[in-house]
Amino acid sequence: MGGSTIDPATEHGELDTAFAETVRQIGASIGALYLLEPDGQVLSLTLLSGATAELAAPWSRVAVAAPAPVADAVRQDRLVWVGSQEEMTHSYPRTAMALPYPLALAAAPVAGGRRWGALLLMWPANRPAYMTGRERRYIESSCRTLARLLEEGAARGGPRVVPTGAGHRSAGGPVLAAADFVERLPGGSCALDLEGRFTYLSSGACTLLGRDADQLLGTRPWQSLRWLDDPAYEDRYRAAVLSREPVSFAACRPPDTWLELHLYPDASGISVRIVPSGTALPPAPAPRRSTRTVTPTRAGQLYHVMHLAAALTEVVGVRDVIDLIADQIMPAFGATGLVLSTADGGRLRITGHRGYPPEAIERLDALPLTTGFTPAGRAMSSGIPAFFSDAEEMRRVYPDATPVSGKQAWAFLPLVISGRPVGCCILSYDEPRRFPADERAVLTSLAGLIAQALDRARLYDTKHELAHGLQQALLPRTLPAVAGLRVAARYLPTTRGMDIGGDFYDLIRLGGTAAAAVIGDVQGHNVAAAALMGQVRTGVHAHATVGTTPDQVLDGTNRLLTDLAPELFTSCLYAHLDLARGHAALASAGHPPPLLRLADGTARPVDVQPGPLLGILPDAGFPVTGIPFPPGATLLLYTDGLIETPGVDLDRSIARLGHHLARADDRDLEALIDDLLDKEVPTGQRADDIALLVLHREAS
User: Fold this and answer.
1) Percentage of residues in the chain with pLDDT exceeding 70?
2) 557 with 614: CB under 8 angstroms?
3) Are 149 and 126 in contact (CB under 8 A)?
4) Is residue 121's pLDDT more than 70?
5) What pLDDT sits at residue 1?
6) Residue 534: which of 624, 469, 619 has the closest Cα?
7) Domains contained in the chain, CATH given
8) Residue 173, Cβ neighbours under 10 Å: how many?
9) Could you tell me which residue ranges the PAS domain spans (predicted)?
10) Quick one: average pLDDT of 80-106?
11) What is the DSSP code (8-state) at residue 683?
């Protein structure tokens, strides 16, 4: 993926200029602006400085749910600071695997009237491993400026590479004198731009490299000099660009001439000194951490594989596997089409696809494994990949396949685990394409990782279906009608993990003028939590319907749980509503306090003294709190997933929720719940389950 350098004074001028100025003023070596795509689930790289778009390709799109600094900045609405490589390895192992260089970074949300995305800034590791208050305030102020410019309609697109001006020197001055100076130095000197291309070579460098300047200028060393065509050497260049620290290495120019190459980077490119091995150079500035200790990664497409392999270990369901292949693996290998098939009952069932018309998918779906229509069945049965570089090659063996797909080149990658076929991944191309041996090897290795991810994902989806069905069966399908009371409820699973949990709610009719409302949260997000939730709800319902008081309801349910010894604890809030008297009695087992909004629009937390969580102490007590519940009042019961935000005090979160409740329109309770969720969970990403139960006392 390429990117062109632009002048900030273009149609994108104000946004680009503000971005470039932020990167320059804060002293960052690399900056990137990510913007949310329309669906709000993916961050797309839009502006970049200090590196090439090709170098940033593995991170051009980042899922908001991903464990990455820019995603956390958006999801948690906070500035994320990573001060060292060690901290990166601990906090973001996937990012550290793909960025094994000593550096520091900050990611900050870009938000104003709405959330736009995140600003990413990177520094060499020789800066202090902490951020000052002044730096933090400057970054936050700059993010507000970027948000304002975006709200004013700054254009999208990209990624665009924006120069910051730092490190660029005037072309004027004694150019010839400088050239003479370089020529007098021992050894050779050359310069690379940030894309790795030669921009200058001294005669000494040409002699040592064994090529004329006109053969090298504009080329990359690992492409024009075959003896430097090694991923380890390209990785030294990457290390210099990303860490902004000097890097040195030795390489052998055939047949037996060893050279030392010393790279000195800055914001404009890299200066390289080349000397025969053993020749002494003036000591280079010692980096705080030696980049010689960096473990080399693969270059080019192989470099993508590091990132993709880490990503494949984190996918959850089959849909995640398909999205990852489509969003990252297809672009990395230039594919325009994808078909992912799985073996099911002796047939190839298409699980996901991209770049194919519906009629083609309909024709290809459910083919027998023994089909002669496409190579997919044979590739999966034999476990041997099949590559077709053009339509004629495919037509000779499978004459019917080409007209159906309309593609011109294919890679059929069997997905096999321990000799057991689980599916076939097909990458296809609109134009003929050669598949060199090294690319075939990479794709074959990647297929093994996809197979493992797909197998895990199918198992997860099966478990999830079972657990989700269990949970839905245990939650009330409808709430009973109670005269004088309007009610609405909502359950939202976590957006990570099994998408199930132990949050529950219920409304129990107790005669003509009374009702009981209950909400609770069982610890965990798995089948055990969902099952225990059903037991708790049943226990509460059984005790409530025999006319016991709120403390007795919780006491009886608590004894049931301690007898069951489930090793999971449950918070619960029970409210008895006496509509005839306009009164409510509440008891809590370690649950967040409900919110009461009166007819005049004022809202406050109800001061309910909580008892311990259910299932811990068999003889626990649960104090009862009485409050007025007059006509026009609204009572909001909720679980902690609605209010818990990392780094934010719980009391402040509850006060914020009360503020939102006070300003909400209570004429439509479903719309009121939507409004609260939009304000409390604006990104839609939930680290915990959320349950809400809203009860509005009708005016007389």
Assistant:
1) 87
2) yes
3) no
4) yes
5) 37
6) 469
7) 8-161 (3.30.450.40), 177-277 (3.30.450.20), 313-466 (3.30.450.40), 477-697 (3.60.40.10)
8) 9
9) 182-218
10) 81
11) T
